Amino acid sequence: MDLYEYQGKELLRSVGIETPEGRVATSPSRAAAAAADLGGGVVVKAQVLTGGRGKAGGIKRADDPDEAREAARSVLGMTIGGLDVHRVLVEKAAPLEHELYAALVFDRGAKKVLAMLSRMGGMEVEDVAREHPDAIARVYVDPLAGWTDYHGRRLVFEAGLETELLRPMCELFARLFEAFTRYEALLVEVNPLAVVGGRLVALDCKVTVDNSALFRHRHVAQMEDHHLADAQEVMARERGVTYVKIGGDIGILGNGAGLVMSTLDVVAEAGGAPANFLDVGGGAKEEEIVTALEVLTSDSQVNAILFNIFGGITRCDEVARGILTAIDRMDIKMPIVVRLEGTNEADGRVIIADAIAAGAANLSVEESMRGAADRAVELARGVV
Amino acid sequence: MAIIIDETSRVVVQGLTGREGSFHARRNRAYGTNVVGGVTPGKGGQDVEGIPVFDTVRSAVEATGADVSLVFVPPRVATDAIYEAIDAGLGTIVVITEGIPAHDMLRVYNYLRYRAVTLIGPNCPGVISPGKASVGIMPAQIFIPGPVGIVSRSGTLTYQIANELTHRGIGQSSAVGIGGDPIVGSTYVDILARYEADPETQLVVMVGEIGGDEEETAARYVAEHMTKPVVGYVAGFTAPAGKQMGHAGAIISGSSGTARAKKVAMEAAGIRVGIDPTDVAKLAGQVLAGRELGQAIARTGAPSV
Looking at beta carbons, which residues of chain A come within 8 Å of B243? Predict the structure, then answer.
């Protein structure tokens, strides 16, 4: 889960890292009040989970509360990278001498924590890495040994920073590492990290935490923004369904992440546009199939459905019964293509075939994945 | 041969008395696997349909001579169970559990990095060596013994591809699900090296998906170290960036981890990549047929034209 800047900064402050004084505001008048409260010049920053905020005009300077109100008026309601801005962070503007870059990354390739430091702060680190690869000092940290001072010394010397920054930087990284491990982050990035009178101040940050560890961090789990996701994604989460919106017109259901991803690809290969990723998971029972179909059919763009089940723990007859129950209960009229293979496949196919014989005209059965995809594409186009 | 597990493996199931543990342990035993015991703290002395239960992994190993552990315990306590298995001296640990926190697994990985332990998973379907043993949750009936080794991050895709191979009469030496999490105990490279050394395996099918750069690393390994042919597949061409596609590890971040980049890297390493699971099985059949022809030519001399 990605955190907003103001949320990430809250976590950084909790381990003793300095950030500019600031207030979150959801309206122009509150932004003005925050600016008055902070006194002097402020920066009004859009809170949005995407990059390129500055270039999009989502960060504005304001010298007094009236300017802050105007800045917030233009930033709130902006759409940046497809996301609406609902909040701004109003922060005291800080005079700074230099902008640096500091980060800790959960490196799944190396299976270590990667610490990075660069003199070239304030720009996209990917650009720095491409154009000036030597400008980024890197050191790997063994999670069993943890952070030690030499890691910090290496970063400071290899990044070519002034020796005066040695102590504050070692301290900063020790604290970043503390935040990284305490909150079980996958990324803690401070960019820019400002040098202000010899002190280090986190001007902006990006924090990503591990969803699988949120059960241990209630406070962080509550930071999740439920406005963010689209209607089906919210509905899916409430009902415990693994769902991702893609945006096409063919609703996809399958079991197992890999098989569902593969099904999306095969549908795209057949010329169709998948509406979603939906994994009913291993061992899905009748009721879970019904729930999954409720989520999927609530997307008004969907006009055909493709079921791709390879039964391991999942039993094809359970899936077939779930489909029929859902059709019955929700009165689903749109075409449903079913492809069942694996455990109890014969029983499952018989159940579907009987339903078709009994008049369920919108159901059809296909044997192969590609055949099912082709059929779903035709049906979605209304060709058949 | 076969890799990782075979008919001599002696399996202890951690979490045997749980719903999943007892169901799959019995299925594994029915397949012919030596399931010699289970571990559930506090339930030592009981049994699950004749499989004795122990309080600790250590006592289970002492009593049964187990050398493989199959872990079904819930994610919050799973790494505790893994450490217990490592310290009890088990050589192979297969972890089915999904949802283990990444930082927990990072520590486990570094703990066993320099130990002679093979960890498969977590968040994986396990390992099957058809006709010999099945350790995990794979539907054993779709596999038949033969020359193809499978390595995959996805369970159901493994089944799909194995099924397509079996329908064509092409059997499998082993199938290994390495797991869909960001940190797994064994990578493609670890498993590819084993297939390269396994005399029974003549071809490897490598099934990848979006996220991370394990497939790219594996492709380099194939180009530099493998003599056996490898056929590949990658899922997730239609996956949008920044969205986790079911598996914790299946996420495109920025420009890294895309299916296209993985396919390109695999093809550059001489791996033939199928467009869908059916195509993968077809390619495997073609490569094997070509290889047999090549071997026949090597035995009898070039055919006269």
Answer: 244, 277
ipTM: 0.91
What is this structure's pTM? Answer: 0.93
Q: Are B157 and A258 within 8 A, CB to CB?
A: yes
For residue B129, the distance in angstroms to the closest alpha carbon of chain A comes to 17
* Among the listed residues B9, B270, B304, B274, the one whose alpha carbon sits nearest the alpha carbon of residue B133: B9
> B139 to chain A nearest CA, in Å?
5
Q: What is the rounded end-to-end Cα distance, in angstroms, of chain A?
A: 43
Measured between CB atoms, which of A126, A264, A311 is closest to B254?
A126
Q: Which residues 6+ apart lie within 8 Å of A350 measured at CB? A: none
* ∠ Cα A291 A270 A256 (to 5°): 35
Q: Please, what are the domains in chain A?
A: 21-92 (3.30.1490.20), 98-221 (3.30.470.20), 231-381 (3.40.50.261)
Q: Which residues of B touch A142 (CB under 8 A)?
A: 110
User: What are the structural domains, with CATH classification, of chain B?
Assistant: 1-123 (3.40.50.720), 143-299 (3.40.50.261)
Residue of A nearest to B113 (CA): A111
Q: Is a pLDDT exceeding 60 seen at residue B305? A: no
B241 interfacial to chain A (CB closer than 8 Å): no
| pLDDT over 80 at B280, yes or no | yes
| CA–CA distance, B138 with B124 (Å, rounded to integer) | 10
CA dist A165 and A156 (Å) reads 8
A101 is catalytic: yes
- Which of A128-137, B36-45, B60-69, B225-234 bottoms out in mean pLDDT, i.e. has the lowest? A128-137
- Residue whose entry in the numeric block shows the structure tokens 């990503």: A208
CA distance A371 to A377: 10
What's the CA gap between A190 and A104, in Å, rounded? 9
- For A258, the closest of B99, B155, B183 (CB atoms) is B155
SS (H, E, C) chain A: CEECHHHHHHHHHHCCCECCCEEEECCHHHHHHHHHHHCCCEEEEECCCCCCCCCCCCEEEECCHHHHHHHHHHHCCCEECCEECCCEEEEECCCCCEEEEEEEEEECCCCEEEEEEECCCCCCHHHHHHHCHHHEEEEEECCCCCCCHHHHHHHHHHCCCCHHHHHHHHHHHHHHHHHHHHCCEEEEEEEEEEEECCEEEECCEEEEECHHHHHHCHHHHCCCCCCCCCHHHHHHHHCCCEEEECCCCEEEEECCHHHHHHHHHHHHHCCCCECEEEECCCCCCHHHHHHHHHHHHCCCCCCEEEEEEEECCCCHHHHHHHHHHHHHHHCCCCCEEEEEEECCHHHHHHHHHHHHHCCCCCEEECCCHHHHHHHHHHHHHCCC
Cα atoms found within 13 Å of the Cα of residue A118, Cβ hemisphere only? 24
Token pair in block for residue A214:
């949120």
Residue from A93, A90, A85 nearest A34 by CA: A90
At residue B57, what is the residue type? V
Query: What's the pLDDT tens digit per position in B58-97?
Result: 999 999 999 999 999 999 999 999 999 999 999 999 999 9
